[in-house]
Each structure stands twice: as structure tokens, then as C-alpha cells.
Amino acid sequence: MGELRVCSVLVTGANRGIGLGLVQHLLGLPNPPKWVFAACRDPEGQRAQELQNLASKHPNLVTIRLEVTDPASVKAAAARVGEQLGGSGLNLLINNAAMLICNTLDTEMLESMTQVYTTNAIGPMLLSQAFLPLLKKAAQGSPGSALSCNKAAIVNMSSSGGSVKEATLFDQIPAVSYRCSKAALNMLTKCQSLGYREHGVLCVALHPGWVQTDMGGSGSQKPPLTVDDSVRGMLKVLCSLSEKDTGTFLDWEGNVVPW
Asked: I want to staple 15 with a disulfide (CB 3.0 to 4.6 A). Which of 40, 82, 97, 162 is the partner?
């Protein structure tokens, strides 16, 4: 298996949970990226303390203020990253920011479903649109034509809860709006893979597993996976992705998840 060797990566929702774990592990790689951009709503706030501590120790970590549901904030973040990168592009965009509201079929509301869908499906679309020029620039600057995460890629953090076939753990966590938003994100990923292939950008939906985070632990049972185990597995999967994997839905171990 190869090694993830990217010059630049951006992670959204990077102040806690899986996002923070990704940033920590990326910084700890044998050959860490030249730039790790960690984006969250309030990078100077109390909820981003661990991120601030990391930034004080790693000069290649740049925190970015980002509200994924605000087009102006998304554009400003893309401009900030582009300025930092100078003439080079962005190799890897990880759309990790998400929200979950545990409503049932009986309690789901217009407001909650709109909020979750906007964050989990529309947000990644806006991010991908805004950062596409930087992803294309990275692809153009990479040798060879084969797709890979080392060249240019969009990784959309999905969930087996959004699998129409499996609808995993529905009895314990109905989370109707969350499931619908992740199913929509999967379709967005497929569309992106078809539309961005000509630009040399690989696109994949990734299920991190049921992970011990604030979001993952919202049900009555304890999730089986730690953040470290999930992130370590996902980074191995990202190393192995190639042309044949663009537009697929995989889990943290590289297994295909049914749509």
C-alpha cells in the first residue's frame, strides 16, 4: 500500500471529533502535508482550543474560519487558502463538517430537516464548487493522468445511515433528516465523480464507521470505534484509492457500502 503524500489538504469541521482526528493524524504522517488547513466556524473560540494548541506547535497548520452553509464564508475561505498556497493548488478537500438532529418520522420538522440538509449536503456542494479551481490546479501540476488522492480529490464524509439499502441502526437512531441528507450527499458524490473526472479530480463518499464522538454517541448505545481507529483506517483507504474508485461509497476499511 502506498503512502499519502499530499502537499495540501483542507478539512472542514476540524475543531472536534473526526475532523480534529484527521488533522492530528495528517500532521503526524512520516511526510506530512506542506499545508494542513483546518476549517471550523470559530477557530479562535473555546470549542477550538485543541486546534489552537496544535496550531501553536505546527507551523504548517492554518486555521480557517468557515460556515459551510454561508456562500460568502465559503468564498472567503477559498480565497484565504488560495492566497496561502500562492501559485499551487489544493490536493485534498475533505468535506467532514456535518450535523445530526435525532428526530423521528413523527417529530421531524421543516426547520430541522432544512438545517441538516443544508449543512450536510448543500455545504459540501458549495465547498467543492469554491475549491474546484484550486483542485484543478493541483491536478494539472501532478505528473500522470491517473486519479488519486495524492493528485486531487474530494472526500465527502458520508454514513451508512444514508444507505438506502441498509439504513443502519434505524431502530436506535431514526435521525430521519440526517439519513436523507447523507443519501443526498452520496448522489452529489456520484455526480461530482462524473463531472470532475475530466479535470483530474477523484471523488469518493466515505463512511467513517460508528465512531465515539459527540455526534456518534447521541444514541442509547456506545459506538464501537474510537476516532483514532476510524481516522487511521480512512487514511489507509485514501492511500489506496485510484481511478476505479472514483464515484464509489466506501467505509473506513475500504469495503464497498451499498447505496
From this structure: 40
